[in-house]
Write a structure and sequence with these properties.
Largest sheet: none
Number of strands: 0
Strand content: under 5%
Order of helices and strands: HHHHHHHHHHHHHHHH
Shape: globular
Structural class: mainly alpha
C-alpha cells in the first residue's frame, strides 16, 4: 500500500537524496549545488539548493543559517517565477518559525505557503504547508481547531500511499489522544506509525514513533521497555544528526525516569536536554525541559519558594509562546507539588485557526 518514503523538500538535482541521508551529507551536497547554480546563473537551481541548505541547517539547530537560506531560496524562486519553489521556501520559513517558538509568524508563513502551492498546482507543497498549520495548532494545544485537519490530511496521505505523511499524521493524532488521556488509542496509532515507517524506510518518522510508544508505555509503568525504545530511537537520531529530535528524546527519557521515581537520573537528563534546546534556540523544548528539571529538583528537596517562583515564570513563558497544553502541565505540576496557583497568569496567545 505504501511506497518507500521520500523527501520532496530535496528538489531538482538533489531529489535523489534519501530521506535517511545524514544532514551533514545533505548540507554538503546542497552547498555544492548552490555553488554550481551561481556559476550557471540558474535561479531555480539556486532556489532548490538554498531550500536544502535551509532544511539541513534547521534540523541541525543552526537557525541563523536556516533563516538566511530560506529567504535566499524564496528570492531565487521569485526570480525564476516558480510558484511551487516559492511555496517550498516559505514552508521552510514557517517551519523554522515554529521551531523558534514564534507561532503566530509560523501560521502566517505556512498559510502563505499553502496559497502559493495551490496557485502553483504543487499538491505536495500544499499538503506539507497545511500539515505545518495543523502541527502548529496541535503544539499549541488547540485540538478542536486542528483535529479535523489532521484527520483530513491522514485520509489524503493514505489514499495516495504517501508513507512519510501518513506517519506524520498518525503521530500527530496519536499525540492528541495521548494528551487527552486516550492511551490505548494513542498507543495503537504510534505502533501503526512505527510499522509503516519501518516498512517505508523512514528512519526519522520511525524514531519519533518509538518515542511516542515509549511515552505511553511509561505511563503504564513499563519503564525498562520504554527506556529501551528511547535508546533505539537515539541511535537513529545520532546517526542522522537529528539534533532537535535527539533533544526531545533526552527530554522524554527524563519524563520516563521521573515517572519511575528516579529523580536524580531524571534531573540529569532534563539538564542535558535543556542545554541542547538552548544551543539550538528552541524555546518550546527549553521550557518543557525546564519544567521537568524544576519538578525533579523539587522531588529532591529543592527550596519550595524557589520552586514556586520557577513554576510561575514557566507559566508566563509558555503563555507568551501560546502553548495551551504546556501551561496546563505547569498547573498540574503545581497541584502535584502542592504549590499555590500563580496570582495573575498571563493570557495565552491566540490559538491556531488554520485556513481551509
Amino acid at each position: 500500500m505504501y511506497g518507500k518514503a521520500f523527501a520532496p523538500e530535496y528538489r531538482g538535482s538533489l531529489e535523489d537524496l534519501s530521506v535517511n541521508a545524514s544532514l551533514e551529507e545533505v548540507l554538503s551536497k546542497a552547498v555544492e549545488q548552490r555553488r554550481r547554480a551561481q556559476l550557471d546563473g540558474s535561479a531555480l537551481d539556486m532556489a532548490h539548493a538554498e531550500l536544502a541548505v535551509a532544511e539541513a541547517s534547521r534540523r541541525l539547530g543552526r537557525v541563523e543559517d536556516a533563516e538566511r537560506a530560506w529567504k535566499a531560496s524564496y528570492r531565487a524562486a521569485r526570480q525564476a517565477a516558480d510558484l511551487g519553489a516559492m511555496a517550498w521556501a516559505v514552508w521552510s520559513g514557517g517551519t523554522l518559525a515554529r521551531q523558534r517558538g514564534t507561532l503566530a509568524l509560523a501560521r502566517r508563513w505556512l498559510a502563505i505557503a499553502a496559497e502559493l502551492a495551490e496557485r502553483g498546482d504543487d499538491i505536495v507543497a500544499r499538503g506539507y504547508s497545511l500539515a505545518g498549520l495543523a502541527e502548529t495548532g496541535r503544539i499549541q494545544g488547540d485540538y478542536q481547531a486542528v483535529g479535523e485537519l489532521h484527520e483530513k490530511l491522514l485520509a489524503e496521505a493514505r489514499r495516495r500511499g504517501e508513507a512519510r505523511h501518513t506517519v506524520w499524521a498518525l503521530e500527530g493524532i496519536a499525540q492528541m489522544h495521548r494528551n487527552s488521556g486516550s492511551y490505548d488509542t494513542a498507543l495503537a496509532m504510534f505502533e501503526e506509525a512505527a510499522e509503516i515507517s519501518g516498512r517505508a524506510d523512514d528512519a526519522r518518522g520511525h524514531a519519533w514513533a518509538l518515542r511516542g510508544i515509549a511515552d505511553v508505555l511509561s505511563l503504564r509503568g513499563e519503564t525498562e521497555r520504554a527506556l529501551a525504545l528511547l535508546s533505539e530511537a537515539e541511535g537513529t537520531c545520532r546517526r542522522m544528526k537529528l539534533v532537535s529530535a535527539l533533544a526531545y528524546n533526552h527530554k522524554m527519557r527524563g519524563n520516563v525516569l521521573f515517572r519511575a521515581g528516579r529523580y536524580a537520573e531524571a534531573e540529569e537528563c532534563y539538564r542535558g536536554a535543556l542545554e541542547e534546546f538552548r544551543e539550538m534556540a528552541e524555546p518550546r523544548g527549553a521550557a518543557l525541559a525546564r519544567l521537568g528539571l524544576v519538578k525533579s529538583r523539587a522531588r529532591l528537596g529543592h527550596d519550595r519558594a524557589e520552586t514556586a517562583a520557577e513554576l510561575d515564570d514557566l507559566h508566563r513563558t509558555l503563555g507568551r509562546i501560546g502553548l495551551l497544553h504546556a501551561r496546563r502541565m505547569v498547573e498540574a505540576a503545581r497541584a502535584e507539588l502542592g504549590m499555590p496557583a500563580e496570582p495573575a497568569a498571563a493570557p495565552a496567545a491566540p490559538a491556531a485557526r488554520p485556513a481551509a
